[in-house]
Amino acid sequence: AFVIKDILDRFNIKRNLALEFGVERAYSTSTFANYFKKVIGVDPFNWLLTDGYLRDYFTVIDLVKDYNNIELVKGFSEEFINEHYNERFDLIHIDIGYDTHCYLTTFPSAEWAVQHSDCVLFHDTISFPEINKVCEELSERFGFDYYNYSEEIGPAGQVCGLGILIKKI
Hints:
Layout: H1 2-10, E1 17-21, H2 27-33, E2 38-43, E3 46-48, E4 54-56, H3 57-63, E5 70-74, H4 77-83, E6 91-94, H5 103-114, E7 119-123, H6 129-142, E8 144-149, E9 162-167
Helix pairs in contact: 5-6
């Protein structure tokens, strides 16, 4: 949570509207809700996670019930993009693909994200090297500075990595 505040402060990110593709247990969604006026979390909410936790829409709604600034959208990032194609966001966080985090499933949403926000975050850039590759390519193609924060730790204590793409001024 502290790294998010540092990112927002360091890069002077506005705090009106954040978008998250991939909500899972809503940890980062609720973290963003502490800093943004509104957070939209997009997820299909139909996964059985490897630890046996069923993540459905109603379970996650219950997890974030104390936040009146979170809107959860049941669906895939591609569907959301089609409906909100021209919208801009102060920050977009991408954590899709869950157990796979592969290049092919991440790249299309990530490419749209860098065209609709000056700050795009990516979870698992170290634990899934293909996500790091997405960040590197988008950084070069769209003129973003890329920082790979290697101290981002997952719930099991593993180093996950947090990719930070910031539009060059």
